[in-house]
Amino acid sequence: MQHPSSNCDLCPRLKKFREDNRVSFPGKFNAPVPSFGPEDAEFLVVGLAPGLRGANFTGRPFTGDYAGDLLYATLLKFGFARGVYQEHKDDGLTLINCRITNAVRCVPPENKPTGPEMSKCRPFLEAEIARMKKLKIILSLGKISFDAVVRSCGHKMTDFKFTHGGMHELKNGVTLTGSYHCSRYNTNTGRLTEAMFHQVFEKITAAL
């Protein structure tokens, strides 16, 4: 199982939302968003789901919204990306030893996937992780993404507690760390600062 088809019907609510968006926003991507970056990377970033006017419009994870501004600037700063991020998938930006995906590939209403939708999409995340033969560390952005990775790697959610910057050894030998999501809400409220985000990346580069 590589990637959901452009008309994936596993989740009726998400399918209906996608079809509505194709009417409301013609010319935009409006499909399950594929991963970005090389499969032989040692580092995987896992977000929750595409943003409506971000990845759902552009077709590239974290591209076109505020979360992408902070994420890609940080990837560039720490040497995981090369080029200039310009909020569209044809900006020429490339990832270095890093890949980005989402726990849920389709944009959900109000950015809130349901439990069953998370479960339906989990096989794609499981396959993503399995294909990355050189994978050493996963960064989950937010608790829901963290829990999705934990389950995808064969653990119970109670096996590990999400904390910002916490490091956990998974049974497949991969290290899982978490960060508060780099959303505008979290940065505006001070839950996540740029310095806090950079501290997580400092741990990641040290681990690699």
What does this structure look like?
This protein has 208 residues and is α/β, with parallel strands linked by helices. It has one domain: Uracil-DNA Glycosylase, subunit E. 36% of the residues lie in helices and 13% in strands. It has seven helices and seven strands. The strands form two sheets. It has a five-stranded mixed β-sheet, with helices on both faces. It has a two-stranded antiparallel sheet with strand order 2-3. Strand 6 and strand 7 form a beta hairpin. Helix 4 crosses helix 5. The longest helix is centred in the middle third of the chain and has 17 residues. It is globular and about 45 Å long. The two termini are 28 Å apart.
Question: What is the terminal-to-terminal distance?
Answer: 28 Å
The share of residues in extended strands comes to 5-15%
Structural class: alpha/beta
Which blocks of ≥5 consecutive residues have pLDDT under 50? none
> How does the major sheet shape up?
5 strands, mixed
- Average pLDDT figure: 95
Q: What's the structural domain tally? A: 1
Order of helices and strands: HEHHEEEHEHEEHH
Q: Compute the gyration radius: what is it?
A: 16 Å
CATH H-level superfamily title: Uracil-DNA glycosylase-like domain
Q: Please report the number of helical segments.
A: 7
CATH class identity: Alpha Beta
